[in-house]
Amino acid sequence: MTTDNGNIPSVEQLIDVIGNSSVGIAVTDGSGAVVLHNKAQSVLMGGEAAHLAGRISIDGAGDDGLARLLRRLEQEKRIDNVRVVYHGTEGQGRAARLNAVAAGSGGTTRIHWVSRPELGERLPIPDTGTQDATTSDAASWIRAVDACAHPALAPGKGHEEAMREFYQVAPVAIHLIGVNGNVMYANPADVALVEYSSSPSEYVGGHIRKIYEDQGLLDDFLSRWDQDSPIINFRANFVTRQGTPKPVLIFSTAQAQGGSVSNTRCFVFNDPEPGRARDTISTFGWPA
Q1: What is the DSSP string of 188-227?
Q2: Where are the alpha helices (DSSP H) in the chain?
Q3: Which tens digit of pLDDT belongs to each residue from 133-162?
């Protein structure tokens, strides 16, 4: 369920996973003109791309920051964990860490952007008892995303080709977990993250338990998904096929209706600070 078009999420699932993810997602052409973007990207930009002349404004006035990134992508094809500041119509916006990848060439180039907000805290709360989940920046972030309206350029059925390409080449690991805890879908970056690229069937379709180092942490996650309790900016260790710990940073929400989860929307980044202590929890810490 990883690489061919017959085994990626349905169009409806892609619309949900991309549109309602907890990280900013945008797809642009090679010049930076936005094809689609999600709610989280609207929050980062302080407004919709449609209100920003259909472009992304990064790191300063006009297109200066965007132009620098486009030149870098033209040379390197992919960038990871680059600090950027998004700017909206009135200068509002916020700092984020950006991963981006260029696909295609010439007039057919599309650039896939994934941005996670710079946050000092996380959800679930740590077990130190010093963090107030109701006022944390992680809680404020996910509230803002949930409250944001879908933008005019939100992913839809007319974007099927761009969404499928995004899933295949995204510069971030993505997996969907079902109510039984099994990995329903995992994109190539996710399979590679845990080093199952040579045998993806050993991972995809099996229980997510296989790749979590802290089994108690996973049990807590599994018990809370039906509540649509978010996992935001959370440091954990995955375990690779060879048994090696893989420090990661998790941004995940669940598609839950009527008290039952249908699937998660998990976006997983290589932790740029792998030496930091892994997060732990005593309660899930998401305010009702």
Answers
A1: HHHHHHTT-TT-GGGTTTSBGGGGBS-HHHHHHHHHHGGG
A2: 11-19, 39-45, 64-76, 137-147, 160-169, 188-193, 215-224
A3: 567 899 999 999 999 999 999 999 999 999
